[in-house]
Amino acid sequence: MTSGGSPSAATSGRPSIGIAGAGIAGLALAGALHRSGYPVTVFEERPEFAPTGAGITIWPNALAALDSLGLGDRIRAAGNPVGAGGIRTADGRWLRRMDRARIEAALGEPLIAIHRVELIELLAEAIGTNDLRFSAGVTGFKPNGGRVKALLADGTTAEVDALIGADGFRSAIARQLQPDIRERYAGYTAWRGVAETDTAHLGDDGEPAEFWGRRHQFGFVPLGRGRTYWFATETAPAATTFGDDLDHLRSTLHDWPSPVAALLDATACGAISRHDIYDRTVARRWSAGAVTLVGDAAHPMRPHLGQGGCQALEDAAILGRLCEGSAPLDAFAEYERLRQRRARRYVRLSALAGRTNSLPWPLQGALHQVIRTIPDKLALRQLSAVSGRKAFR
Ligand SMILES: Cc1cc2nc3c(=O)[nH]c(=O)nc-3n(C[C@H](O)[C@H](O)[C@H](O)COP(=O)(O)OP(=O)(O)OC[C@H]3O[C@@H](n4cnc5c(N)ncnc54)[C@H](O)[C@@H]3O)c2cc1C
After folding, report:
1. What is the DSSP string of 301-358?
2. Counting atoms of ligand 1 from 1, which one is nearest the CA of 21?
3. 192 CB under 6 A from ligand 1?
4. 107-157: per-residue pLDDT in tens?
5. What top-level class would CATH report for the domain 55-116+184-280+357-391?
6. Ligand 1 centroid vs 38 CA: distance in angstroms?
């Protein structure tokens, strides 16, 4: 490194690695590389970690990845296990409902719902504070002999032996590797929020669920310690403004089944965020020489399977493991070979799941009928293949 506080390659014997982005992918990978003795510097464009945020569900495939990163039990202890749940219509009827024992048998263990702020804090604990540079946006890179210069937004550069783009959906590194990356609006917007209440006292109504209506979906899972993570979507033109987001959702969903209104009422205005959902080209090539991509930078996906962050953790676990035994350049090529096909499958499945938002009504009705009639055994087999512990290899 030409700057920053990491140990030098000379002291650790390992080449130095720069990571652009301190999100789930960047921090999880930094922790793995740090443990293997690499001098790592994470460059984050924000001035600090976001003090607020929503929840996130970590499925057992990602818990298996976290176990291999040595972090699984800490995340399980900080989060809340979610076993039962299902899909309901906007008038409250269950389209599919699974009990805890069957879900856990299929997945290998319950999924974990955790507050994002807590997840990021736990991932960041696994690296030294000197390894993290805030207000350090990476705008691109320049190959420099066998090394790489990371170009920083303040006009300076940082030279490393290898650079990893973990800079999310809008990744500057991915766009330099592949300038023809495109984004396309998916046709709906998504809110996420944390309600300061739990649903345990509500009986059946408190069971985690997704409600599917004609233009809206709403889902919730308990985060533990009296909090519930919820999300909502609405079919709408791109960049629609809704005035006060909470007021809009409270009035639009006021007659939806319990606990929708109660969760919205128990949400503070600072505890809600909204993103229009876009599809983005999956990077054709993740690696070029001493540069590679992880997480959303490589393979952004729609949120419906709750797998974007989980796949970022799988990337980190696999790449971290490969870097333990091989030089980064060899590891990058093998990582891309092992991960690319699998990640593309999740991108396709997530887009397919997301299209339920924009189907015209008669087709939505037909889809509900299909969901009602698929045998549990088949549904559980599919769930296990996508999100079960054994899905991570
Ligand atoms: C509504 C919604 C719900 C979701 N729910 C789930 C869920 O339940 N489970 C799940 O697994 N996934 C979920 N996801 C997906 C998940 O949030 C993402 O896949 C995940 O955050 C990707 O992690 P990442 O580290 O690759 O990218 P990001 O989380 O985007 O992190 C990128 C980091 O890089 C920084 N950065 C950006 N550009 C630069 C730059 N040029 N230089 C330096 N730093 C930069 C950013 O500030 C950020 O800190 C959901 C997504 C949405 C929109």
Report:
1. --GGGS-HHHHHHHHHHHHHHHHHHS-HHHHHHHHHHHHHHHHHHHHHHHHHHHGGGT
2. 34
3. yes
4. 999 999 999 999 999 999 988 777 999 999 999 999 999 899 999 999 999
5. alpha beta
6. 24
